Structure formats: structure tokens, C-alpha cells
Amino acid sequence: MMSKEVITDMKSRTLSRHFRESFKSLGRNGWMTFASASAVTMTLILVGVFFAIMMNLNQVATNIEEDVEIRVHIDVAATEENQEELRGKIDNIAQVESIDYSDKEDELTNLIDSLGDEGEAFKLFEQDNPLNDVFVVKTTNPNDTMGVAKQIEKMDYAAKVKYGQGSVEKLFSGISLSRNIGIVLIVGLLFTAMFLISNTIKITIVSRRKEIEIMRLVGATNSFIRWPFFLEGLWLGILGSIIPVGVVSVAYYYSYEFLEPKLQGHFIQLIEFTPFIYQVGALLIFMGALIGVWGSMMSVRKFLKI
Amino acid sequence: MIEMKNVYKKYRNGVTAANGIDVKIKQGEFVYIVGPSGAGKSTFIKMMYREEKPTSGTITLNGIDMGSMKNNKVPHIRRNIGVVFQDFKLLPKLNVYENVAFALEVIEEPQKNIKQKVMDTLDLVGLKHKVRMFPDELSGGEQQRVSIARSIVNQPKLVIADEPTGNLDPDTSWEIMNIFDEINTRGTTVLMATHNKEIVNTIKHRVIAIEGGRIVRDEQRGDYGYEI
């Protein structure tokens, strides 16, 4: 693209000339400017919304992954020695990170607490607790959960082994499916926006054909000729990213305010408004600039043959 | 200054516009390129400022091989070559001064030099009093003078003109020829493709005749040699 030498050697007068030219042609191609900036806008709104949702889903997934645990219900018939023996065996599995013991009274208290008002009914069971003592096992890597659970199932005195079978896997595959659909959608939109930008630049090139012809004739360098088009593409991209940054910020702010209280107490935690929204904003502006410059360079290469 | 050796040019559509051209042109010469339409004059000229590349053979300008030259070197070669066309190629939205200054601005000539150079050049072509006028306010001859001024404002060693008098009436054509003669007298090589028999036969210079992509005649102080 542009050699370093050209950029450092460029005189400020030349640079201001390029800026002037690029702004002039934005105005001259009014409707095309509007159309291609709008295409960038639509694309980036979707990119922004999708990105915010994805990042939050990822965060939730990470939270859940951290919370994945194996609950080993200990046979009621097990004596204290039997329990110690079982704990020792579980501890011997290499992937196991920690084992916590929670006796049946703790379990009942937790159950009653988690059910809130309805939990009152279960207080009756305090006299004759039907629950089991439980080992809560965590693995170093959440992916090993299933394998470890299977091993524990075979041990003596392990009455029941639970690790949220099915639901965890479904959640993860749901997240990755929506991620793939979103990526396809966004790539398609990015190309549309780029195509529109490159068309706008093409119109500029055609309307300035004579000027470019003379420039080449008298020995203007290729990078000199290219600069205004490069800048024009950049402006189109940045222009198109202003509204998305605003829309996504406002939408995320209100969504956060609305959802956060409802999610309190669940283990789901949304990403906080700042600095997340600055990162999203920077990403959108960067992507806008990128497709603008890319679209413009495509046109320049094709129609200027330089 | 210019040397062509065994130059062939075949276009993709099968037309052979140069069919083994060998020629040498020395610094300071004035050369007419004559020949019927479609004989290969324009291709000959375009290869001189590397608007076209030869299919085979070599073209050297002051020792630099134009054929194998990288594209990014071309702009610097062009700064030593002025080109004038039949249709002037002026920018309609710029006035006389701006049209000439444009050639210096786009090669990033320091601003302080531009005004002096432009005014000196416009003086040479006799348009100093019309600097603020726009191309559509000028006669054809005046427009061609602006175009010549633009081609020589950077003081090139070679000026190439493709039918510069093609759109002009006879009186105006003589005035334009006088300007080219003046430029030539100052040491600049002038290469001019033309159909103007009267001029070629009156202002005597070297004549190269091209037919079917070949040089069929090359005479010092030659004649036009064709009936119109």
C-alpha cells in the first residue's frame, strides 16, 4: 500500500490538499456517500449488537463452566470409614481439583434457602432428613467433568452422581451455533458495505478521470494520486460508524439497567457498561475504517491500474 | 537521448503497431513523425513516455531502459517529459494559472517556486495577461498554449506533441509552431506527430515517416511527402 517513506516525507501542504480533495468528493457524490455510509451503519449496528450479546454469552458460559461441579451422593449405609475411603479414591483421580464435604443437614438448609418462601414446607424434614451426605467435586478443567463423574459412579458407596448432565452441553452448543450464524451474517454484511464503498470511490475516480490522467502525465507519484481516495474511503467508514457507536451504547446501557436487577441472585453476571462499551465503540470505529479503506483500495487498484 | 532497438508492439487484439523500429534521436533535435492514420505514430509516441510498453526490443531514454523499468519509477521519468495533445486536456474548473501550476503542485514542487515558474512559462507562451481566465473563455490556440505551458513548466528535456495543431486553424497553428521552435531553440528535444504538410514543408526539421509500424523514411530537413 503506502510506503513509509511517502508518509514521512509528505509535506503538510500536500496532506491538507489530500484532505481537501477527499472532503470535496464526499460532498460531490452526496447520495452515494449517504448510501455507502448507511450500509456501513447497518452492518456495524448488527456487528455491535451481536458482539455485545456474544461477549455476554461468553461471560455466562465462563461463569457456568466455573460452576460446573460433580455432586456425589453418599450411600446412607456408608459408615464414616467408608466415606473416608470414598474420599480417598476420588482424591486419587488426577483431574480432581477439590472435594468439599456437605452433610445432609447442610444440604437441607441449602435446599430450604434456595426455595425461598416455598422452602418453609421442607422444614418438616428437619426431624427425619431424607437427603444424603454429599461430596462436591470440582475438576481442574471443566471438560473433564463427564469422565471424572463416570469414574466416581463405579465406586462403592457412591449412590448417585450428578453433574448437570445434558443441560451444560446444550448450553455450550447453543452458544457456538448462534456464534457461527452471527459470523456468517456479519461477513456477508461486511462485504456488502465494502462493495458499496468501492462503488462510491469508483464514481469519484471516474468523475476525476481527466485530472488523474494529467497527474500521471506530469509525473505525480502513484501514492500521491491514491491518497485522496484512501482518505475518502476512511471517512466513509468512520462516518458510517458514528451512529452504530451511539445506538449500541444507548441500547447496552438500557439493557444493562433493565436486565441486571432481574438477574441478581442468579449466577449470571452481565459485563459492566464501562469499560466494555469503550471497547465495543473502538472496535466499531476500527471496523468501519477498515472496510472503508479496503473498499477504496479495491477500487483504486481496479480502476487506476497503479 | 532516445534510442529504440528492434522494437515490436503487438496489442492484444492482434494489431501490430510497431514492427521492428530502430531509431536514435539526439538531445536538442526537432523531429516530425508523419504517416497515414493507423500507421503506428501514436504507439511510437506513447512508447516514448511509457504509456505503452514494447512487446519486445528496448527503448532507452538517457540510458534508462523504459521497457524493464518498474511502474513506480515511471512518475519520475515523466517529470523529464512534457506531453501535449490535440485536445489540450485542460481542467475546466481551473483558470489558466491554476492549470499550469497544477503540474507542479502534484509533483510536490515547493510552493515558493511555483509562482515564479508558472509566470515565466506563461510569459514564454504569451498568455501572461490571461492568467485569471478559464479554459472556456479562451480560443483554441490559447488553450493549446496553456497546455504547452503546462508541459514545459517543469523544464523537461523532451517535449512530445501528438498532433498539437490538429484542432487549430492555419494562422493559429503557425503561432503554436513558433512556440515549439522557441522551446527547441532553448535546447529541449521536440518530437511531434503531425498531419500538417504545410508546416513540415516550411519549417524544416528531421522527418520520420511511419507506415505499417515501420520507419519507411528518415530524413534530416525532410518533406512531408504525402498528399492530403
From TrEMBL, chain B:
The keyword Cell membrane applies. GO terms for cellular component: plasma membrane. The keyword Transit peptide does not apply. PROSITE patterns: ABC_TRANSPORTER_1, ABC_TRANSPORTER_2. It is found in: Cell membrane. SUPFAM superfamilies: P-loop containing nucleoside triphosphate hydrolases. Residues 2-228 form the ABC transporter domain. GO terms for molecular function: ATP binding; ATP hydrolysis activity; transmembrane transporter activity. It is a peripheral membrane protein. Keywords: ATP-binding, Cell cycle, Cell division, Cell membrane, Membrane, Nucleotide-binding, Transport. It holds the Pfam family ABC_tran. GO terms for biological process: cell division. Signal peptide: none annotated. Homodimer. Forms a membrane-associated complex with FtsX. Part of the ABC transporter FtsEX involved in cellular division. Belongs to the ABC transporter superfamily. NCBIfam families: FtsE. This is Cell division ATP-binding protein FtsE. It comes from Cytobacillus horneckiae.
